[in-house]
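Field log, afternoon session.

UNIT: design team B
ACTIVITY: writing a sequence onto a fixed backbone
BACKBONE:
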């Protein structure tokens, strides 16, 4: 692979700044990677040079509330409608009418909403871990899809999404332990998947019962860095950004379920997607379990041109199994899109 230079840029519109990384020829087919919680543009560090080397113009922004993009002091500023507008402004700034969009985690609802509200700006879309017809439609929709054999209703009203209820009811208590030690938080979160997760309850189901993350402790326990996910440099990049900005912005993405559901109701064509769609599920993702539960079923009825794949990884798929992610993206792009 030739040496690829990744450059740093920013776009400003209506007082909002979106920082982004870019690689590849400026006139190449445009592919934009959208990160999730609590990540950064560098979460796509294995994808940007790869697709740039293939001739794509590869872009990865820091989302609002993260890194060097704008941070806001109110929960309402992190509604999906505003975040979608950020991405449209980025696309306009890049001088393109359309792009291939790829999302992960909370980046997925952003991409799903782009496709369902602005299909003319989406040449094709791909998402990792979070299927369509789920979180972009709010917590009630997620709760309706819970596997009740694994999460009895009387014990886990929202199933593995109990942690989202805790954000809504006790936001400060959920956020304070993360802010107390962002480095330890990042080390604990960014870990590879395991076969042991299959069929087991996700730890996120216990957050409400424990009255907080980390078993209710005031800060996360110190754990060794998982070198299969993060280099020391990557870890410190995450920790530095989260220390500087705090977790208020990232966690506020969870505080707009009602507004996001109303926004999803405004989707064109009843939310039906007709462009090429790729969904890649993580086999060992016990929270976003799209392999061993019904979580992906709504998506299958809403996408007319859907390709699905499964990778043996945990939730941080693009960082844990980058070669497999790149393979499935390229195969789909070559066979279906381009």
């Amino acid at each position: 692979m030739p040496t690829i230079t990744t450059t740093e840029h920013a776009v400003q519109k209506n007082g909002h700044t979106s920082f982004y990384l870019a690689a590849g020829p400026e006139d190449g087919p445009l592919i934009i990677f959208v990160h999730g919680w609590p990540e950064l543009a560098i979460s796509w560090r294995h994808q940007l040079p790869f697709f740039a080397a293939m001739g794509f113009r590869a872009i990865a922004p820091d989302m609002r509330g993260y890194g060097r993009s704008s941070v806001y002091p109110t929960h309402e500023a992190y509604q999906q409608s505003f975040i979608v507008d950020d991405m449209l402004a980025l696309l306009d700034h890049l001088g393109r009418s359309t792009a291939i969009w790829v999302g992960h985690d909370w980046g997925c609802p952003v991409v799903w909403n782009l496709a369902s509200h602005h299909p003319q700006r989406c040449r094709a879309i791909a998402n990792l871990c979070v299927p369509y017809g789920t979180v972009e439609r709010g917590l009630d929709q997620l709760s309706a899809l819970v596997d009740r054999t694994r999460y009895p209703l009387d014990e886990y009203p929202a199933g593995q999404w109990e942690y989202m209820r805790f954000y809504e009811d006790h936001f400060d208590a959920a956020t304070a332990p993360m802010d107390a030690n962002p480095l330890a938080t990042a080390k604990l979160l960014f870990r590879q998947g395991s076969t042991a997760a299959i069929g087991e309850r996700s730890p996120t189901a216990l957050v409400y019962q424990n009255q907080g993350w980390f078993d209710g402790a005031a800060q996360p326990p110190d754990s060794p860095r998982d070198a299969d996910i993060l280099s020391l440099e990557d870890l410190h990049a995450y920790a530095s950004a989260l220390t500087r900005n705090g977790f208020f912005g990232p966690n506020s993405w969870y505080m707009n379920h009602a507004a996001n559901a109303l926004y999803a109701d405004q989707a064109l064509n009843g939310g039906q997607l007709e462009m090429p769609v790729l969904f890649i599920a993580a086999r060992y993702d016990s929270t976003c379990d799209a392999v061993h539960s019904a979580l992906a079923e709504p998506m299958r009825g809403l996408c007319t041109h859907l390709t699905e794949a499964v990778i043996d990884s945990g939730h941080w798929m693009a960082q844990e199994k980058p070669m497999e992610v790149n393979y499935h993206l390229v195969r789909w792009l070559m066979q279906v899109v381009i």
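LOG NOTE: The domain at 7-337 is CATH 3.40.50.1820 (Rossmann fold).
NEXT ACTIVITY: expression trials, pending approval
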